[in-house]
Write a structure and sequence with these properties.
single chain; 2 helices
């Protein structure tokens, strides 16, 4: 793979590199998307389940019905960060093209 940012921006790889160094399997999808963690590296039994809407609702007002059928939703789990993770992210945020714009609000789509 080739590290690249959006439209000529530098890649934001410091967080992914740090997670990789401490043993996580990571990958990047596109600029602005956080690193992914391998599901087999997470103890889901320690996390609270975050259920979706029942019945599912359409993602957009432009849709009459949801893209998935009732009962086909994938579970989500709620996690929390630590003070140390917060410190690392805050100290390295200036390396991310999403957060290093002149106004501090970011240049990304989110």
């Amino acid at each position: 793979t080739i590290a690249a940012g959006r439209a000529g921006d530098k890649p934001a790889t410091a967080l992914a590199d740090t997670l990789y160094r401490v043993g996580f399997q990571v990958g990047r999808l596109k600029t602005g998307t956080p690193p992914r963690i391998a599901t087999d590296s997470i103890d889901f039994s320690a996390l609270p389940v975050q259920y979706g809407d029942e019945p599912p609702k359409a993602f957009s007002y432009m849709n009459d019905k949801p893209a998935i059928a009732h009962g086909e939703q994938i579970l989500c789990w709620s996690t929390r960060t630590t003070e140390e993770t917060n410190r690392v992210v805050n100290e390295h945020g200036h390396l991310s093209p999403i957060f290093n714009s002149h106004d501090g609000k970011g240049a990304g789509p989110r």
